[in-house]
Amino acid sequence: MTAPAAPDALTALAVVLALTAALGVRGRRSARTASDFLVASQGVTPLRNATAIGGEYVSAAAYLGTAGLVLAYGTGTLWLPVGATAGYVLLLAFVTAPLRRSGAYTISDFAEWRLGSPAVRRAVTCCVCCVGWFYLLPQFQGAGVTLRVLTGAPVWTGWAVIVVVAVGLVASGGMRGITAVQAVQFWIKLVAVAVPAVALLAIWHAGGADAPAEDRPVRFERTTRVHVETGVAVTVRQAVTVTATGRLDGVRHDGAAVPLAPGRHIVGGGTELVFPRGAAVPHAERLTASGDGMWAVPPGRPTPLGLYTTYSTLLGVLLGTMGLPHILMRFYTSTSGRAARRTAALVPGLLALFYLFPALYGTLGRHYTPELLMTGDIDATILLLPLRAAPGLPGALMAGVVAAGAFAAFISTSCGIVVAIAGTVTQRMRHRDGVTAFRIGVVLALAAPLAVLPAIGPRDAADLVVMALCVSACSLCPLLVLGIWWRGLTAAGALTGLLTGGGLAVAAGVARLASGPGTGWTAALLAQPSLAVAPTAFAVMIAVSLLTRRRAPRRADAAMARLHLPEPAPAP
Asked: What does the alpha-carbon distance between residue 53 and residue 185 come to, in Å, rounded to a whole number?
């Protein structure tokens, strides 16, 4: 990993931060009340709201993770972003307009308004915080990876940038302050990923290279020097002789030729390996097949474990999108339920336009950056590809543009999540001034993931985001769907379902972070529990509600009427 693009990357970061600060100052001048901080006084138009949602939804997983997944597993992984985009169709059909008509500011407000239970409200608040904290982890890690790869800076410098920007922007202007930032940053991200992609495609085509095939091992196109930052276990599929400097399989070498037999090998941190041209690229152990099939790809020979991991991930992404607190909070900013529906209808088109390009980076990465399969640093694909395809000034400039889009992704998503967590916590601090309580919530939102980051080590952005979506799918999604569409939901049923689904999903996520990847059914259930836990959460909510049907809220009929009857037309 080298850092030839440091000046351009730092310049791009400075430009993004300057633009963010300018937009934030403009929003801060008009943010005075708690309503401004929480929902921008419910005055955001559909197009602006849709681009703001696109800005915060195109996160580290979308910007870095999608290209990395295609590099590691091929284009078969594209069902993951397709599933994430399809989740908005479900959101449009079942949640957006009724949720906006409820008049609540947050999901916790909605839960207490619908069921009249402070206990349910507290449980929802805990779920919102857990989803948000899981979702913040890949944003911090993505920022750290970006600065490390392009400038050689320690990973904590990326974390520091996100914290400083989030505190300065969110605490000063809240939702009104970040709406313009997120809307503009979506277009920054789109341009930053599209323009270099077109240039790289032209460079590849001019070189007359064949398309990288997915049905044969990825090979080094030239003699390649690979520097391993941290220790990693790799799987060698074909025998190869490498030149090693550092520790390999527990033995220190000083530029010696070392034959590697097929199988598992341990490469120590700081080791440098030189592979000959045409050698098959070893895969980092965490990128190889788990059990009988990779989690991200439907296996060619269907097996129970492979099918479970694939469909569980898909279900978690679909249902989890319906319950993401930072996305749902944006619909509270719409002027009406009709505007909320129009906003949700625009989002899939914007996301589909963006997702055209990361897949191209991943495919070209198989040709230009295959060594990332060995180091396991697949999230760096989109960052390093311009430097490898176009060495010198053109590549450095393109890398700077890509870095600008990357930091726009981290900043806009992080700010949206922090607003959602702070807004939810704020509503419980009624003894304090609303704006002061909101600022306290901002600090709490950022403190938890920062405390966890040093302990979990490097993780793929897509993997971390799937964890957050799983918690959302197993807790907030059942509450929203049943609370909006079933009159019979009771506080006892909702509380039991939240504790069951949310508790199991959070426990699985924590265990996965603590233990790392594994094999077999236990590892699959910990990594992708949605297929088992989400239906259980729905079933528990329904069963307990039926058993306590006499305790259904008396105002359930009035609440359902407000959620589903058309809104009165505005006065002429």
From this structure: 10
